[in-house]
Amino acid sequence: MEVESPNHQEKSRGWFKSLSEKLWSKMDDFVRRLIKLGKDDPKKIVHAIKVGLTITFVSIFYYFDPLFDGFGVSAMWAVLTVVVVFEYSVGATLGKGLNRMLATMVAGALGIGAHRIATLSGHTGEPILISVFNLIVAATVTFVRFLPKMKARYDYGLMMFILTFCLVSVSGYRDDEVIHMAIKRLTTVIIGSCASVIMCICIWPAWIGVDLHNQIATNLEKLGNFLEGYADEYFKVSVDDQDGRSKDKSFLEGYKSILTSKNSEETMANLARWEPRHGRFRYRHPWKQYLKVGTLARECAYKIEALHSYLRSEIQTPPEVRNRIVEPCTMISKESSKALKELATTIRKMTRSSIPDIHVANSKAAAENLKSILKSGLSKDVDLLLVVPAAATASLLLEIVTCTEKIAEAVHELESRARFKRAKPRVIPDHQDDSSHHQLDQQGITNGSHDHHDDYVITIDGNGYSSNQVVPASRNHV
Amino acid sequence: MEVESPNHQEKSRGWFKSLSEKLWSKMDDFVRRLIKLGKDDPKKIVHAIKVGLTITFVSIFYYFDPLFDGFGVSAMWAVLTVVVVFEYSVGATLGKGLNRMLATMVAGALGIGAHRIATLSGHTGEPILISVFNLIVAATVTFVRFLPKMKARYDYGLMMFILTFCLVSVSGYRDDEVIHMAIKRLTTVIIGSCASVIMCICIWPAWIGVDLHNQIATNLEKLGNFLEGYADEYFKVSVDDQDGRSKDKSFLEGYKSILTSKNSEETMANLARWEPRHGRFRYRHPWKQYLKVGTLARECAYKIEALHSYLRSEIQTPPEVRNRIVEPCTMISKESSKALKELATTIRKMTRSSIPDIHVANSKAAAENLKSILKSGLSKDVDLLLVVPAAATASLLLEIVTCTEKIAEAVHELESRARFKRAKPRVIPDHQDDSSHHQLDQQGITNGSHDHHDDYVITIDGNGYSSNQVVPASRNHV
Question: Which residue of chain A has the CA closest to B313?
Fold first, then answer.
């Protein structure tokens, strides 16, 4: 027994030690993650401080006697409103604030009405009638909340409507000054909402419209990044055989986030509609057009997902077959990449440009070239099974050309609907006789704002093409 | 002037008429949509009524004097809690309710502590110290809310934490009975939350776990539906040329919803974890495994998306080439379809089955057959451009076979982790000498629960295969 006792003690000590070590490592992990979050996005720290400051500011109503005398305990509603309404983005905060204020106002008025009607039926009938009103209003509005359109924009307002209606009508049973109470509630809700909105907009605001704008541009860039490196990757792996696999291939995975971005884009567009004019985003900015571009980008990402799977395909097409299509395939992927990246720059800088069109035209020409190569047959002696991945790749690249063209069209529609600026025109004397060339030069090649654009354009004559030949861009721009 | 006046009146009358007509049509549209919503899902109507009843029930605390005397105006918090906590699904309601109760308890206690410390610094120092506390707590917790893990499960609780902490600590300045207030708040919150949870669970509950379970099964069915009709569609369009386009093709579009289902599945899995044991769903049901199956289904849907695009391809492969691959392609798509549908049935009925494995084996055999046909070459005289879509289709079908196999594996893991029942064994005398065949028959072919399974299995000998030949399934099950 004497031996067991210290053993037991040791055991429990060990247990305690391992528990505390576990807790410690969990805490450590938690803090590390918080620090990483703060470093990655300092704006989130600022948001947290903004929320704290607003709550502190609003609670002053409670501390100062002259203010407190006006509101009484209702002053608490202002603090509550700030906690609930203050969101990270301006759109979400404004949306919630407006929803809450409007709902409180309408529901408060209706609640007073319901209370008045109920009092007519005497002290016993009043609670019964109010209960019936509450049941009907709560059930109806809860059901309306299921409508997708309502859910997207007014969900919070409808919830607040039920809340305020029940609050005001029920309170009336104990508190005869129902109108006074409803007004106090409305005032404090307005104070809380306005404090949140003002704080949210005035100090380093996070516009969700800007986030959506940038995300769409980033998505196009990610597609471009994949296509830029894809052809090299695909054709090199077969030629050099497993060589260079150690280098960074993250650009090949970037597009994956686009595959599932639909919901977040839709939420962002819904919230962005609440935001007032800011920066170069006007009132009634065409947010829906961003969703259109986003959808097309996603369709392109699906094709890229299929393309990506052939990178890891077990069946490897023999080099002699690949070598026949390497040129047009590389061309398509490079030119589509450039087109997508230029479109991303167009969106990011909000400046119209026709450089993307040039790259789209180039990629289309390369596609025609690829088709003609395929038409002439690749190599008749090779077994078709080995050709399948190459054929599928070629076919997908052809589809990506179509996709890129559609994206370009959608971005051009966005340009005109959002009234993007034109790049500064520069007069080129040589071309003054030809107005269409002239215009193209104004917007396109001479546009100084593009970074990624290599300054050569490929001419296409018939089926073949010669690279690195510098010609005026307008020749290819049909 | 006399002429203009009636004209003006008429104009304003016309304007008023058109406005009222517009309003009327909008209202009409709104009501129609509500009715459609109710018809499509009567459970939503029931939910709305449940919310109304719970609110009415909780407001009784306000009407009855003995109950009101205990809580006073705080009784209002119970109504408020019901409005905010009561969600459609049990998981969401329980999650919010538990979050709210726990947060109110912890934050209430901390708030009282903060108030006590603050009172030590005198009447002037108190508000300053409380403000500092509030600032620190609100900012820290708001920042913690950004952590993805916290956001997924405890977002509402963290918000309630800030709210209650501020409420209790600030109220302490005017109300000396802080402890009493905190307890009243906690009690009313508990009453509201419990009323919501009980009502939500007891009357026609909507388990989000069941929804996730069914959605995953439906997704597999949708993939199966596409593949079932795909081959007929693809090969018929070329042979009959545009014939039969008028018939219902909705099965070809069903898979599209899977492409973007990631977010909703993740949310559902997060909420399902809150739900207690119900029906055949135990405590610690492997919800994450559903997400795994869902992800694989999505990968398969990406391939199907690519496959779908070839249905509308401009380039049509000549019939003589198509005819060479029509058999194995049809076989792959039909057998994969059956496998996926059987997997869906397995999930839906929560009964283990090895029928899917048989179909997977069949589709793999067909894939080998397709490969050997491709190896022998399709038709050397045809231009390769026309072969590309067929080759790409074949290649995608080969990948779908791999995908289906992966899905089958994931579903089998789900079966064992969620402890699905085995189908009732039935002894077949002919096979009693071979235990592995015997077992297969027990689970597979003789399982009476499958509806979609045609009772023949295809034998594979070498590269070729003969269809419609009835053999014991176990022969193909490697």
Answer: A399
List the structure tokens of A450: 């593009």
Residues 6+ apart with CB under 8 A from B435: none
Q: Closest partner residue to A34 among B143, B171, B378, by Cβ?
A: B143
The 3-state DSSP class for residue A260 equals coil
Given the structure tokens 């060339």, which residue do they identify?
A437
**ipTM value:** 0.82
Residue type present at position B179: I
Q: What domains can be seen in chain B, in order of their start residue?
A: 23-202 (no CATH), 208-424+434-443 (1.20.58.220)
Q: Looking at the complex, does the CB of residue A147 fall below 8 Å from at least one CB of chain B?
A: yes
Contact at CB, B48 and A140, closer than 8 angstroms: yes
Q: Which residues of A touch B38 (CB under 8 A)?
A: 143
Mutate one of B143, B264, B375, B403 to test the A interface: name it (highest A CB count within 10 A): B143
DSSP-assigned letter for residue B241: I
Give, in order, the Cα–Cα distances in Å from A246 to each of A17, A226, A233, A312: 42, 17, 12, 15
The string of DSSP letters for B387-409 reads HHHHHHHHHHHHHHHHHHHHHHH
CA A299 to chain B, closest CA, distance in angstroms equals 9
Q: Which residues of A touch B171 (CB under 8 A)?
A: 62, 73, 76
Give B303's contacts in chain A (Cβ within 8 Å).
306, 309
CA pair distance A300, A406, nearest whole angstrom: 10
Mutate which: A145, A388, A397, A399, vs B, most B CBs within 10 A:
A388
Residue of A nearest to B169 (CA): A59
Q: How far is CA B307 from the centre of its chain?
A: 24
CA distances from A35 to A39, A52, B140, B334 (A): 6, 19, 12, 53
Give the C-alpha distances (Å, rounded to integers) separating B283 from B99, B201, B273, B274, B277: 19, 16, 9, 10, 5
**For residue A190, which of A303, A88, A85 has the smallest C-alpha distance?**
A85
Rounded Cα gap, residues B115 and B179, in angstroms: 10
Q: How many helices (H) and strands (E) does chain B have?
A: 16, 4
CA distance A74 to chain B (A): 11
Chain B positions touching A51 (Cβ under 8 A) are 138-139, 142
Q: How many CB atoms lie within 10 A of CB A459?
A: 17
Q: Give the chain B residue nearest A45 (alpha carbons).
A: B143
Q: How far is A68 from chain B (nearest CA, A)?
A: 10
List chain B pLDDT tens, one digit each, 478 residues.
Answer: 444 556 777 777 888 888 999 999 999 999 999 999 999 999 999 999 999 999 999 988 888 877 777 777 788 889 999 999 999 999 999 999 999 999 999 999 999 999 999 989 888 888 899 999 999 999 999 999 999 999 999 999 999 999 999 999 988 887 778 888 899 999 999 999 999 999 999 999 999 999 999 999 999 999 999 998 888 887 774 444 444 444 567 778 889 999 999 999 999 999 999 999 988 888 889 999 999 999 999 999 999 988 888 877 666 777 777 788 888 899 999 999 999 999 999 999 999 888 889 999 999 999 998 888 877 765 555 566 777 778 888 888 988 999 999 999 999 999 999 888 887 654 444 444 444 333 333 333 333 333 333 333 333 333 333 333 333 333 333 3
Q: Can you name the residues that pair with A460 across neighbouring β-strands? A: A465
Distances (CA, A) of A6 to A1, A10, A13, A16, A20: 9, 6, 10, 15, 21
Query: Does A173 contact B63 at a Cβ distance shorter than 8 Å?
Result: yes
Q: Answer yes or no: do B55 and A162 touch at CB < 8 A.
A: yes
**For A120-207, where are the alpha helices, taking DSSP H only?**
122-144, 148-171, 178-202
